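User: Second chain of the day. Same drill as before.
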Amino acid sequence: MRKIDDVIDEYTGLSRAVLEYTRVTKRIVDSAKDSGFSVRSWEPLAELVAVDEFERVGNFKEVMNWEQYTDFLTNWASSSEWEGVFKRVTETPGLVFLELEERSSVGEFSNVVNSLAAFEFDEAGKIRHIDVYLQMAMPEAGMLASYEGVGIQE
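Assistant: Same format as last time:
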């Protein structure tokens, strides 16, 4: 298991920026239970983002601008524990793909998902767009029956 802090020094450029974004997110989520936590707590993350043109498309195809995203993050982080375990990062001009195993818990509920996030950058090297894709276990084993027609069996 490799944490972001274990690998960040191996990378430069936009890949390093994405890893820093993830590391800052982890630090803020960890501090979210402290008094005084608010939307303003995300300002260190905003330093890496083109906030005026930012757009995030989430795992349910929901689209958020920076203000909406930080509102969402604030509500989520204040009741969650989160960790991203590094799997792989791939960089192409203006675009970085980050693969993590994400572990999160909210109260009694916890889950582990594989995520791939595509980070698009502007000319200044700021994150302007993120697309999020997830793989997760089926919520109930019996649900696999609905996939029998495509060759998936329990």
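The two ends are 29 Å apart (CA to CA).

User: Great, on to the next one.
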